[in-house]
């Protein structure tokens, strides 16, 4: 569709795939000259009423002149977009630039008339709303700032499209026509509307995959054991509540494994909602075409041989995505393990897991099939019951994540009533900006626990196409925590934290009471709390003679203590017959915890098979056998258990040869229908695991409380935003000043005085004057440093700045290294300055190597560093730390996403380990932290207001008891990187 037009080439970058309100997809693209036949066919399928609403008169057919007009555009003053499914038009929108009197016009006229037409069969799917987002973005790109639309009063659907969009608008009524005018500048409301529509559409698209009314398995063979046959039998054995079909072109039978069989999807008389494709990669396109033509809504492709196999497979994967989206379908995979929905309404096991997990409240997403198997197995073997907190609500293994990603599943989980906790194993994040936004919103409603694999591999796993990030993993992890994500390092920690967050209340603070019948185990728990930054109370030893009633009384007393936010109960085996004692202890703990429902309780046990089973049952009944672990996964060790109600019978771990930890893995489950009302107590086989999970819950609880009041981005009256924008535009246009930087960055500029700023592949590094001027427009002052290539010029610079001064070397190997002796401070006169100059050149070499500078002295204080950078994947990030060894050697640096609020700035300063140095450590004078926070806020505003500012470094920033001094600064400008989290809704293209 790349046909040249009157004035501009076909704008391929306007093409996009979008998810519609009902969860289906459509492709939006510019209308070109060779679309005439498609346009005529589309118009013939529009009802007479819709045509009347479009043209305000009966208009049964388009004339040749109309067709030419609607297919020939200059893509500047006249633009048309079409939404297509299966290559055919389902809706169109166009704008025509007009003058103030409504006549056709060209730039600089900034108003355009817009009109839509949607096929009746596709009305109500949100097509017009999606087209409005895209045509508005196109118009802004072409200099159009305002749309006008004339609509008949009876066309209420179209009026609603405009009024619901969230733009500021005016409405008038004249000559029987409603005229709407609205500015195209995005507003908070329009962005909120767009993101709400995005959430509903993407959640619905995932719901169609997880709750289908009918499923066809394409590639189910006659012989048991094959991939397709296994998926078919798993669906059947799980009790799928919808219609199930087997599809194989070689089948002559009408039935396979007790399931109706067909040679093609086309032969199935009823609609098919979901198709699982398990045929060789070379046959997948044919299967996709059959599914698309039959109206299948979504696909799970378990077939391998795609991007994970190399460049040829990557191209095959891209072609697969294009083909799937052409038919308006969503895709999980390829190379996927499958999907599961345990809801009794669905009972979907469209995966390679031979056992259906128990129904529960945990949503599970894994990019890796192997990790998915391990997690399903671990959760499944928690023992007992039909339903329970440790069961799974839904499970998605995305494989190569070519289409449906973790972002889509987060959209679904956000308002899924069956999911209380979301656990995710991620190996890559395709759209970190969007993931962070969705994670923050999800975490405000329910816990989101994430473990990230391939953290240190340096590249995304095979099959995952993602943008490269320049940020280290620690920074990415910190940014995720800022968004409320519970970040853990292993799948064991993932499950441990998930169990605690699933059913225990969030702790109100870090104060932990410890009680139990083992002094040593209590001390281990105490030490673990200190290591995790918690505030443990002295352990209470109940002695080995403690009875169940003693435990109950001690726990009740601890929970009633206002100085306690959570309780960890430690227990060791009883001597002799344990069954009755264990059951009594479990019941006692549950009884005490039920009286204080606002405080979490955890149990630490040491290889107590009997107690673990009793905690699962809270009765004295004998354990019953449980089903085999899901997927036949390898034995897992030492998982946590929740205590369940006393009237629920326990079930034993079926493993005939368990390891010591696994012997204690039976876990509490709720009776059907009682899950929402019971409270399970998680039990852990090691103090460190219990305390680590509790520490994550404490941090998450604190984030939830703080997120309720995220703070504000302050307004500063002295900020010159327009002046900064003009300066940046001038500099990027090539009218730059001197090269180099400011302060210690300025030495190199001495030899290049008068040159333009350093323009490289990564952008334009500003010279000292431009750097100071730009930062000054945002109220950030920089102490100027003057080049001193000779002793005489050093003296002249000092006289210009005023004594006392500092003499510094700025050579790369000496910069920011005062410990090497390349700095002389408090030089009070010319004589001291000349002697210092001679000392430096004598020690380190000629001035040409040292690049010395002279700078006015700043008040003494704490040396800090502040950086801001726009990462192509994560977005704009503000970083802070103490200068020198703390940040460079120990990595003691904190990070926040821009824009930063006043609360963010305060927490940023206080979150580094060396923060006490700013607050009067060991009797020193406290630094002016308020001035430091204001500097952070001003720099955040600069980068947020002007995305062309891709990097700012302030080093060092000396924070004195009163005020601060920025001694070195560098700024880099570049055309801003593409923002896929702004603009109209689109599906990613990898």
Separation of termini? 20 Å
Low-confidence stretches: 1-6, 382-389, 616-677, 745-756
The biggest beta sheet reads: 8 strands, mixed
Number of helical segments with 4 or more residues: 28
In which range does the helix fraction lie? 25-40%
What is the number of E strands? 43
In spatial order, strands of the major sheet run 1-2-3-4-5-6-8-7
Q: Give the overall pLDDT as a whole number.
A: 85
* Coarse shape: globular
Beta-strand fraction estimate: 15-25%
Task: Look at the helices and sheets and give the structural class.
Answer: alpha/beta
Radius of gyration: 33 Å
Please, could you describe this protein's structure?
Strand 21, helix 13 (473-482) and strand 22 (486-488) form a beta-alpha-beta unit. The chain contains 28 helices and 43 strands. The chain is an alpha/beta fold. Helix 15 (519-531) crosses helix 20 (687-707) and helix 23 packs across helix 24 (830-844). Residues 1-6, 382-389, 616-677 and 745-756 have low confidence and may be disordered. The two termini are 20 Å apart. The chain is globular. An eight-stranded mixed sheet has the order 1-2-3-4-5-6-8-7, with helices on both faces. Strands 32, 33, 38, 39, 40, 41, 42 and 43 form an eight-stranded antiparallel sheet that branches. A seven-stranded mixed sheet has the order 11-12-10-9-13-14-15, with helices on both faces. Helices cover 33% and strands 22% of the residues.
């Amino acid at each position: 569709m790349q046909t040249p037009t009157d004035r501009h080439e076909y704008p391929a970058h306007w093409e996009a795939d979008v998810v519609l309100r009902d969860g289906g997809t459509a492709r939006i693209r510019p209308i070109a000259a060779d679309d005439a036949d498609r346009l005529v066919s589309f118009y013939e399928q529009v009802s007479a009423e819709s045509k009347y609403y479009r043209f305000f008169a009966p208009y049964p057919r388009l004339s040749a002149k109309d067709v030419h007009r609607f297919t020939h555009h200059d893509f500047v003053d006249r633009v048309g977009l079409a939404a297509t499914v299966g290559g055919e038009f389902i809706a169109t929108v166009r704008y025509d630039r007009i003058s103030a009197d409504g006549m056709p016009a060209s730039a600089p006229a900034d108003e355009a008339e817009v009109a839509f037409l949607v096929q009746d069969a596709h009305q109500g799917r949100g097509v017009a709303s999606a087209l409005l987002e895209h045509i508005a973005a196109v118009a802004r790109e072409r200099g159009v700032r305002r749309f006008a639309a004339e609509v008949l009063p009876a066309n209420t659907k179209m009026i609603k499209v405009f009024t619901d969009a969230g733009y500021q608008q005016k409405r008038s009524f004249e000559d029987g026509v409603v005229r709407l005018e609205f500015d195209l500048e995005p507003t908070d409301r329009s962005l909120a509307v767009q993101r709400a529509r995005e959430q509903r559409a993407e959640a619905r698209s995932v719901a169609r995959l997880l709750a289908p009314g009918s499923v066809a398995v394409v590639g189910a063979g006659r012989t048991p054991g094959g991939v397709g046959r296994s998926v078919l039998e798993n669906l059947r054995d799980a009790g799928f509540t919808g219609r199930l079909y087997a599809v194989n072109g070689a089948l002559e039978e009408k039935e396979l494994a007790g399931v109706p069989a067909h040679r093609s999807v086309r032969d199935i008389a009823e609609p098919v909602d979901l198709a699982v494709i398990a045929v060789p990669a070379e046959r997948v396109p044919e299967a996709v075409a059959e599914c698309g033509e039959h109206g299948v809504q979504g696909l799970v492709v378990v077939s391998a041989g795609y991007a994970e196999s190399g460049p040829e497979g990557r191209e095959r994967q891209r072609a697969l995505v294009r083909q799937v989206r052409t038919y308006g379908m969503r895709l999980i995979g390829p190379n996927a393990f499958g999907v599961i929905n345990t809801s009794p309404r669905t009972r979907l096991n469209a995966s390679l897991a031979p056992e259906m997990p128990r129904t529960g409240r945990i949503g599970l997403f894994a990019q890796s099939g192997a990790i998915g198997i391990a997690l399903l197995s671990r959760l499944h073997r928690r023992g007992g019951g039909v339903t329970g907190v440790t069961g799974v609500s839904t499970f998605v293994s995305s494989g190569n994540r070519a289409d449906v990603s973790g972002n889509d599943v987060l959209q679904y989980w956000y308002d899924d009533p069956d999911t209380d906790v979301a656990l995710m194993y991620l190996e890559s994040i395709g759209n970190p900006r969007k993931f962070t936004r969705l994670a923050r919103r999800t975490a405000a409603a329910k816990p989101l626990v994430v473990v990230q694999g391939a953290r240190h591999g340096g590249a995304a796993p095979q099959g995952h196409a993602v943008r490269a990030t320049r940020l280290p993993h620690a920074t990415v992890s910190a940014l995720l925590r800022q968004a409320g994500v519970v970040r853990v390092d292993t799948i064991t920690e993932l499950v441990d934290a998930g169990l605690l967050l699933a059913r225990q209340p969030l702790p109100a603070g870090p104060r932990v009471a410890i009680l139990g019948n083992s002094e040593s185990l209590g001390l281990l728990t105490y030490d673990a709390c200190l290591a995790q930054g918690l505030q443990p109370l002295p352990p209470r030893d109940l002695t080995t003679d403690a009875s169940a009633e003693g435990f109950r009384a001690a726990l009740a007393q601890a929970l009633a203590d206002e100085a306690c936010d959570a309780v960890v109960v430690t227990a060791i085996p009883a001597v002799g017959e344990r069954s009755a004692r264990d059951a009594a202890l479990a019941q006692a703990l549950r009884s005490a915890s039920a009286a204080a429902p606002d405080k979490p309780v955890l149990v630490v046990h040491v290889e107590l098979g009997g107690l673990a089973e009793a905690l699962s049952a809270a009765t004295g009944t004998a354990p019953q056998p449980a089903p085999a672990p899901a997927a036949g996964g390898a034995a897992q060790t030492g998982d946590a258990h929740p205590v369940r109600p006393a009237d629920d019978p326990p079930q034993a771990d079926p493993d005939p040869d368990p390891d010591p930890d696994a012997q204690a893995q039976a876990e509490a489950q709720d009776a059907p229908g009682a899950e929402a009302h019971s409270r399970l107590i998680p039990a852990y086989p090691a103090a460190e695991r219990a305390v680590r999970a509790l520490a994550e819950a404490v941090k998450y609880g604190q984030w939830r409380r703080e997120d309720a009041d995220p703070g504000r981005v302050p307004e500063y009256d002295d900020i010159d935003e327009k002046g900064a924008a003009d300066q940046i535009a001038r500099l990027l246009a090539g009218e730059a000043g001197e090269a180099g930087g400011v302060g210690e960055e300025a030495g190199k500029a001495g030899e290049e005085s008068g040159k333009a700023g350093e323009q490289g592949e990564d952008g334009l590094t500003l010279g000292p004057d431009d750097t100071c001027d730009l930062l000054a427009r945002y109220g950030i002052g920089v102490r100027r440093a003057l080049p001193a290539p000779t002793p005489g010029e050093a003296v002249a610079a000092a006289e210009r700045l005023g004594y006392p001064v500092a003499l510094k070397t700025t050579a790369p190997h000496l910069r920011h290294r005062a410990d090497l002796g390349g700095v002389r401070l408090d030089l009070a006169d010319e004589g001291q300055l000349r002697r210092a100059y001679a000392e430096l050149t004598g020690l380190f070499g000629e001035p040409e190597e040292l690049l010395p500078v002279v700078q006015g002295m700043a008040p003494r204080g704490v040396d800090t560093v502040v950086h801001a950078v726009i990462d192509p994947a994560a977005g704009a990030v503000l970083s802070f730390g103490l200068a020198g060894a703390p940040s460079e050697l120990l990595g003691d640096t904190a990070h926040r996403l821009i824009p930063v609020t006043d609360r963010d700035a305060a927490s940023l300063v206080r979150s580094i380990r060396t923060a006490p140095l700013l607050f009067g450590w060991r009797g020193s004078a406290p630094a002016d932290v308020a001035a430091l926070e204001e500097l952070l806020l001003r720099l955040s505003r600069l980068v947020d207001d002007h995305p062309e500012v891709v990097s700012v470094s302030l080093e060092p920033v000396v924070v004195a008891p009163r005020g601060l001094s920025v001694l070195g600064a560098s700024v880099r400008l570049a055309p801003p990187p593409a923002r896929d989290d702004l603009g109209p809704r689109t599906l990613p293209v990898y």
